Amino acid sequence: MNTNQETTNAVAAADIPQPAPQLTPEVVVEQLRAMRGQIGEVTPLTPEQRRQLRSRGRTSNPILQASINVIGALDIVQQAVGQPADDVRQLYDESNRWTAVEDELRTMLSGIAGANLIRRQRVALVAGRAVNISTQLARDPAHAVLVPHVQEIKRLKSFKRRKKAAPAPAAPQSPVPVTATSPGNSTSTKL
């Protein structure tokens, strides 16, 4: 009877999903780089190139579908375009499928950036507490070892608070002479 109960407990424990091991940032970077190498077409673009391609690629789905259909309607169109309609349909389908990857990566990046912001906020909170506690303890001669640390932190904070020097004022420009013509008089007078 005891063996049956142990077997039942072992089976029940196996049914419980185990949490996935947490990945370190270095492992994630390594895996992303390996994945990037397997993807094939990864093309970094400058913001200007991205803007130009977006403006050229703004075509509604019905227009794209009709344009692909016209390629298959007549051989001469297909020859002029240089690609059969089926190849263009496959490219269109592939583009749509990669938008799902794009959305997923964007969501993941947003989540990672948010988690990292929270981490930095926690570090700043702990560091602030450490400074406050160290400042109070440094007043006691028994904790004199903290004095240089506290002074360094105060020095670094004073650099942060300093304002940047204002740019030098531009040299005044010489006034441009303005001329006026009186009605009925063709001579001009300087003002």
Short key terms for the protein model shown above:
disordered C terminus; mainly alpha
Question: What can you see in these coordinates?
Answer:
By secondary structure, this protein is mainly alpha-helical. It has 7 helices and 2 strands; from the N terminus they run H-H-H-H-H-H-H-E-E. The chain has helices spanning 2-15, 25-39, 47-56, 61-73, 75-81, 85-138, 147-161, and strands at residues 179-181, 188-190. The chain has a two-stranded antiparallel sheet. Helix 4 packs across helix 5 (75-81) and helix 4 (61-73) runs antiparallel to helix 6 (85-138). The radius of gyration is 35 Å and the shape is flat.
How confident is the prediction overall: mean pLDDT? 83
Biggest sheet layout: 2 strands, antiparallel
Q: Are there runs of 5+ residues with pLDDT below 50, and where?
A: 185-191
Strand order of the largest sheet: 1-2
Number of strands: 2
Number of DSSP helices?
7
Q: What is the helix content?
A: 55-70%
Structural classification: mainly alpha
Radius of gyration, in angstroms, nearest whole number: 35 Å
**Strand proportion:** under 5%
Shape: flat
State the distance separating the first and last CA atoms. Answer: 116 Å
Order of helices and strands: HHHHHHHEE
